[in-house]
Design a protein that fits this description.
The protein is an alpha+beta fold. The protein is 22% helix and 17% strand. It has seven helices and nine strands; from the N terminus they run αβαβαβββββββαααα.
């Protein structure tokens, strides 16, 4: 349900292409996520990538939903999901859930838009809505996400690798940056001796292919332990009473071995 607070954030996203929700995440959850992410980086022996998009000094862990119940709290968080529902709609999907741990000496990520690979004319209704959870303070010096307000209304995407003037989306630990997928942005350069740690919780419209393949990436036995809303978010629902059904059944019904036909779009006619 849309609240007055969510409406304010939606208005900012419509106007500027982004909003920052301060005091969004409970301190104990932030600390738990930092601790578990540190564990995962050790156990998975995570190393930086070798390209300028992922970063040469940045650690990333993908497909976080397979790594414990703690991560199930992220996609459905009440401070974030209602805003995303308002930007997209309640039929939205998890596109990807990953970490972004920017180390000292990292250079700025090229400015880009998250919907650049979707081949439809711009501007267009939002097909992607992404969020960055600040697990540490995000500052100009340590690599806060850089944004160019208003660019979600442009009729084109940025030229990848070209310099653009941008501003740092500074925010305190526990805040969340949420933006329209057409907004031009990129990770900042870390000029400090401390790591800048965030969680990239990304969503897409229910009719768009997800960035991470949730149905193959997460074992069905694990998905059965998810809440119904999280099962829908990873792709086991049916969008608009039609898209994604299996012989007039929703994937959730088959996953949970439930009988009966799903209510289809034509049943309401």
């Amino acid at each position: 349900m849309e609240t007055a607070r969510a409406r304010q954030h939606l208005d900012r996203i419509q106007r500027d292409g982004y909003t920052i929700v301060e005091h969004a995440i409970e301190p104990d959850l932030v600390d738990a996520l930092i601790d578990d992410l540190s564990r995962l980086e050790r156990e998975l022996d995570v190393e930086p990538a070798t390209n300028d998009f992922e970063g040469a000094q940045t650690l990333r862990v993908y497909n976080l939903l397979v790594h414990g119940e703690l991560w199930q709290r992220v996609p459905v968080h009440e401070s974030v999901l209602p805003i995303v529902d308002g930007v997209l709609d309640p039929g939205c999907l998890i596109s990807s859930l990953s970490s972004v741990n920017i180390g000292p000496g990292e250079t700025a990520q090229p400015i880009h838009a998250d919907d650049m690979l979707i081949p439809i004319p711009k501007p267009h209704p939002p097909t992607v809505c992404n969020s960055m959870w600040a697990l540490t303070d995000f500052t100009e010096e340590n690599g806060a996400t850089r944004i160019i307000p208003g660019t979600h209304t442009y009729d084109h995407s940025p030229n990848y690798g070209q310099h653009y003037d941008s501003i740092a989306a500074e925010m305190p630990k526990g805040a969340v940056l949420i933006w329209h997928g057409s907004l031009w942005h990129g990770g900042g350069a870390n000029q400090t001796d401390q790591r800048r740690i965030g969680i990239a919780m990304n969503y897409c419209a229910g009719y768009i292919r997800q960035q991470e393949n949730q149905q193959l990436g997460i074992p069905p036995a694990l998905v059965r332990t998810f809440s119904p809303r999280l099962q829908e978010l990873v792709g086991y629902g049916v969008y608009s009473g039609l898209i994604g059904h299996i012989d007039k059944k929703s994937p959730m019904q088959l996953l949970n071995e439930q009988g009966g036909a799903h209510s289809m779009v034509w049943d309401a006619v």
